[in-house]
Amino acid sequence: MHPNLTLFLLTAVLSLSLSSTSFAGPRDDLMVQYASAAKAVDPTFSGFSAGRGKALYLQAFTGGKPDTPTCANCHGRDTRAPGQTLTGKSIEPVALSVSPTRYTDPVKVEKWFKRNCTEVMGRECSAREKGDWLSFMASQ
């Protein structure tokens, strides 16, 4: 099968399958973009995983800032509860069941992924990691 046709079909299937989950509009678009980018990096990519997203959320990293080794350090272990920055500022819950308008502004989503991934992991998140994160948050 021609590579462009394969990518088109993957994008179409992901778009249809995501439309039946709690993703809406702009999140659909982000997920399709992330899927396309993940497939470009890894031709065996077959979809996002809420399980991998949860593992990413809880995993301790050593490459970022020492006081924020996990996402849960600021966002809390319970994704449905508010988190708190190290300076004491409240962070709205990251779970879509509690904060359904989260992740609808692509510019903000990318801004926060870039900032938070760099602080926690010491690098930017990959497209697969972003899609896994959003899949996990949609399952919460």
Oligomeric state, counting identical vs distinct chains:
single chain
Neighbour order of strands in the largest sheet: 1-2
Low-confidence stretches: 7-23
Q: Give the overall shape, derived from the CA principal axes.
A: globular
Rg, alpha carbons = 15 Å
Order of helices and strands: HHHHEEHH
**Helical residues, percent:** 40-55%
Please identify the top-level CATH class: Mainly Alpha
Total beta strands? 2
**Main β-sheet: number of strands, strand sense, barrel status?**
2 strands, antiparallel
Q: How far apart lie the N and C ends?
A: 37 Å
CATH topology term? Cytochrome Bc1 Complex, Chain D, domain 2
Domain module tally: 1
CATH superfamily: Cytochrome c-like domain
Number of helices: 6
Topology:
Layout lengths: L2 H17 L6 H16 L8 H9 L13 H4 L7 E2 L5 E2 L14 H16 L5 H13 L1
Antiparallel strand pairs: 1-2
Helix pairs in contact: 1-2, 2-6, 3-6
Notable traits:
140 residues; mainly alpha; Cytochrome Bc1 Complex, Chain D, domain 2; two-stranded antiparallel sheet; 6 helices; 54% helix
Summarize, please.
Helices cover 54% and strands 3% of the residues.
